[in-house]
């Protein structure tokens, strides 16, 4: 489908001049890209089972938002969350091990690709029911207010999720109860095979927040600096004023909905066109222009990251399977099976 | 020991637990300023403030979802669903989320949450306000399900539920809120996983929970007049299901009736019967008899409604039939 392109956001380029932080964003996005490419490979090699949804193409929406958070802030995501988990600081080894179903995975092999989790990193989970995590994220935000800390919750979900009741119930109470939460809609223009304009009466998702008198923004989700700049503002608003917001990041997934999607509902040209705006390549180009990065450095970073991903695979391969005798572990807290 | 109505016993449990633990808070529709649809939360907003007694919009999914997220983030929410019928719009949160989160995240978090909600019919409220669904929840690993039938158990089990680290479905009954009974003052904890004999007898065992416990007790008094000694086992702990007192009783009486207010098919009685067949088949002198609601959506008409829900007479007739005394 066609979307109106956003004019290039020159202000955000001016706002980030520090090489170290740009390099961080670049590395994080590349790590997610290489991790997901490897994941696809491992899926095809049948090392990974079940459903598997990749973040390729959407890296700027992940890194641009999550890099604006503190370690104690909460992130809630969906089944398309490998990148969010990594960006929130979970070791790629533990993520890959979870995809492999191993005991060393983030969820000890009980969750898989769609249910990554880490209490330590305050990555509060991948949820496989569309829209389900938004109300739960509101609960974390309520707890923050209750305890009087200044943490923030970020709840990430797709364009498709904005048509389900839970989305609207969540925006309503977030505004009503002054919850410190940023709702991030990753608008990749499709919910499975259904384009936004075939599913939503309002195709500019940010407008949906207007019904709740809530701050909302639409940003070019292929431009990590633009995403980061606006997220900084929204996170500050949540943290300091306890005012929620909705951020719509317009982006594109290069691959099918999941590994089992033959991708017949959209044209190859459309995919190619979006790839010309690749978030990682564009940031690289920008940094080269600013003399912050050379082609040699780009190559070296890529080698390092590729090695890191290989190491994650090796770790996952070599990790033990869950012990069958532990099948019933953790159905209930504080005791054995019931 | 004071004599309290069920609703006041529940209120006492909430108040005591809120005093005991700052992390306990209540949320639900009209539980604060309005004092609760059934007045279980009466006075609590005045006493504890709006942060700890949170009036919510009429949006069940956000109520349960908020409670889950708060529970995962260090609080102990007690969510009220105005009636169990309304929880249907939040079943995703109850089953796919509350019950499964701990396991699917590999034990990385816990969900110490209580969902209080009344079921039950008999008030001419028709098909969308009268049913009982504890079997739906009791089907789900990850949930605990309790349904007390006396004010003392209501207090003691609610306190235990609030202190438990798991999602607990705390099923109340609209028809029992005014029922009175002796309730121990202060610290009174009843375990969530223990059923017990509420009346000893020799001839026949009757299993019942919630309002049907009262019906069964009444029936037992009537049976006694006719020389039949019924043993009543209170099935207040539905998941985990404590079968020990049932098995023990059946070994003595050799006859079992199950009574529930919901439909029989795939019901609580079906589960109890299966377990008795598995564990005490040889002790039975007759097939297990299941009593439950007529398999229709609850009718409005008073007479039809009376026929549709199980009552004392059903229990008496079934008991006599099982003993060959009709
Ligand atoms: C309640 C529910 N209905 C249907 C599905 C099946 N499903 C999984 S993902 C998906 C598309 C969601 O699209 P969107 O919210 O845009 O997220 P995206 O996959 O594009 O990231 C559907 C229909 C589901 N998981 N949950
Ligand atoms: Mg989408």
What does this entry look like structurally?
The complex is a heterodimer of chains A (338) and B (326). Chain A has 338 residues and is of the alpha/beta class. Chain A has one domain: Thiamin diphosphate (ThDP)-binding fold, Pyr/PP domains (Rossmann fold, 3-Layer(aba) Sandwich). Chain A contains twelve helices and eight strands. In chain A, helix 2 crosses helix 3, helix 2 crosses helix 12 and helix 3 runs parallel beside helix 9. Chain A is globular. Chain B has two domains: 182 residues, 3-Layer(aba) Sandwich (Rossmann fold), CATH 3.40.50.970; 127 residues, 3-Layer(aba) Sandwich (Rossmann fold). Chain B is built from twelve helices and 14 strands. In chain B, helix 1 runs parallel beside helix 7 and helix 3 packs parallel to helix 4. Chain B starts with a strand and ends with a helix. Classes of the chains: A alpha/beta (338), B alpha/beta (326). Bound molecules: thiamine diphosphate (TPP) and magnesium ion. Magnesium ion (MG) binds next to strand 5 of chain A.
Characteristics:
heterodimer, A: 338 residues, alpha/beta, Rossmann fold, 12 helices, 12% strand, globular, B: 326 residues, 2 domains, 7-stranded mixed beta sheet, 5-stranded mixed beta sheet, 37% helix, binds thiamine diphosphate, binds magnesium ion
């Amino acid at each position: 489908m066609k979307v109106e392109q956003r004019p290039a956001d020159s202000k955000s380029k001016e706002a980030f001049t520090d090489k170290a932080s740009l390099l961080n964003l670049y590395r994080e996005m590349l790590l997610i890209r290489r991790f997901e490419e490897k994941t696809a490979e491992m899926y095809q090699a049948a090392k990974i089972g079940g459903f598997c949804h990749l973040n390729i193409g959407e890296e700027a929406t992940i890194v641009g938002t999550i890099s604006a958070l503190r370690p104690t802030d909460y992130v809630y995501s969906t089944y398309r969350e490998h990148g969010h988990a990594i960006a929130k600081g979970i070791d790629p080894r533990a993520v890959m091990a979870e995809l492999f179903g191993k005991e060393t995975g983030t969820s000890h092999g009980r969750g898989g690709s769609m249910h990554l989790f880490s209490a330590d990193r305050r990555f509060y989970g991948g949820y496989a029911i569309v829209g389900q995590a938004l109300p739960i994220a509101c609960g974390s935000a309520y707890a923050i207010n209750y305890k009087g800390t200044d943490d923030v919750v970020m709840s990430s979900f797709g364009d498709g999720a904005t048509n389900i009741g839970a989305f609207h119930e969540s925006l309503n109470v977030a505004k009503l109860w002054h919850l410190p939460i940023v709702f991030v809609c990753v608008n990749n223009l499709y919910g499975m095979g259904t384009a936004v304009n075939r599913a939503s009466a309002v195709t500019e998702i940010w407008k949906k927040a207007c019904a709740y008198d809530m701050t909302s923004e639409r940003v070019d989700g292929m431009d990590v600096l633009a995403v980061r700049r606006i997220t900084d503002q929204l996170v500050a608003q949540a943290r300091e004023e306890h005012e929620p917001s909705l951020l719509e990041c317009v982006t594109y997934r290069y691959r099918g909905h999941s590994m089992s999607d033959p991708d017949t509902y959209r044209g190859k040209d459309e995919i190619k066109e979006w790839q010309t705006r690749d978030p990682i390549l564009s940031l690289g180009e920008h940094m080269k222009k600013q003399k912050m990065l050379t082609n040699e450095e780009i190559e070296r970073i890529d080698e390092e990251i590729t090695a890191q991903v290989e190491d994650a695979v090796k770790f996952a391969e070599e990790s033990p399977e869950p012990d069958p005798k532990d099948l019933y572990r953790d159905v209930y807290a504080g005791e054995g099976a019931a | 020991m004071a004599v309290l109505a069920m609703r006041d016993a529940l209120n006492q449990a909430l108040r005591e637990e809120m005093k005991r633990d700052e992390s306990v808070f209540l949320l639900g529709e009209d539980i604060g300023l309005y004092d609760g649809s059934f007045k279980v939360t009466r006075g609590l907003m005045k006493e504890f403030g709006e942060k700890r007694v949170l009036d919510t919009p009429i949006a069940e999914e956000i109520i349960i979802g908020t409670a889950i997220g708060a529970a995962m983030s260090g609080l102990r929410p007690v969510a009220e669903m105005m009636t169990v019928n309304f929880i249907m719009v939040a079943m995703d949160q109850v089953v796919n989320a509350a019950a499964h989160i701990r396991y699917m995240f590999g034990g990385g978090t816990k969900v110490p949450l209580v969902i209080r909600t009344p079921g039950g019919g008999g008030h001419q409220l028709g098909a969308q306000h009268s049913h009982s669904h504890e079997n739906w929840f009791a089907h789900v690993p990850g949930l605990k399900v309790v349904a007390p039938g006396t004010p003392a158990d209501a207090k003691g089990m609610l306190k235990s539920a609030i202190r438990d680290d798991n999602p607990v479905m705390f099923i109340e009954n609209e028809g029992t809120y005014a029922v009175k009974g002796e309730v121990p003052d202060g610290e009174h904890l009843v375990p969530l996983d223990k059923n017990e004999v509420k009346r000893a007898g020799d001839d026949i065992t009757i299993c019942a929970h919630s309002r049907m416990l009262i019906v069964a007790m009444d029936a037992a008094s009537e049976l006694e007049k006719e020389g039949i000694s019924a043993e009543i086992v209170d099935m207040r702990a539905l998941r985990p299901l404590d079968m020990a007192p049932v098995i023990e009783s059946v070994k003595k009486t050799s006859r079992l009736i199950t009574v529930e207010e919901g439909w029989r098919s795939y019901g609580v009685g079906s589960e109890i019967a299966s377990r008795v067949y598995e564990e005490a088949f040889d002790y039975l002198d007759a097939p297990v008899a299941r009593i439950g609601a007529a398999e229709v959506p609850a009718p409005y008409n008073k007479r039809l409604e009376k026929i549709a829900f199980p009552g004392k007479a059903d229990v008496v007739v079934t008991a006599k039939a099982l003993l060959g005394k009709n």
